[in-house]
Amino acid sequence: MSKKKLNSLEDLGGFVFSTNDEFALNTNETEETLPPNQQYLEAHFSNKGRGGKTVTVITGFVGEESDLKTLGKLLKTKCGVGGSVKDFEIIIQGNYRDKIMEILQKEGYNIKRVGG
């Protein structure tokens, strides 16, 4: 692989350099949490990149991170296992897809089993 020589600022790929002291990048774009009947979640089974440990990953949540953490805590409590919330995904330790799907359906969420 050869290195490409940069001949202009356009070669940097769209970076914008600003000298405006009041410029602030808006990184706190949070959407308002949708009600459970409008949420479409997916339940994935995974063991890649986790040292062979199996986990259940819930994706597709639309809303604020605090509401996602509350939902993650509910699932961890009802399953009696550990887990975490990262990158707008709920990660539950172990293969609890069926149990999690039952819990979320009782809470009013639309959930779909993805993969195997």
UniProtKB/TrEMBL annotation:
Keyword terms, alphabetized: Initiation factor, Protein biosynthesis, Translation regulation
All residue ranges annotated as the SUI1 domain in the record: 48-108
Gene Ontology molecular-function annotations: mRNA binding; translation initiation factor activity
Signal sequence range: none
Family matches, as PROSITE patterns: SUI1
Domain of life: Bacteria
A Gene Ontology biological process term: regulation of translation
Keyword field contains Coiled coil: no
SUPFAM superfamilies named among the record's database cross-references: eIF1-like
Keyword tRNA-binding tagged: no
Xref: CDD domains: YciH_like
Protein family: Belongs to the SUI1 family.
Protein name as it appears in the record: Translation initiation factor 1 (eIF-1/SUI1)
Organism per entry: Lutibacter agarilyticus
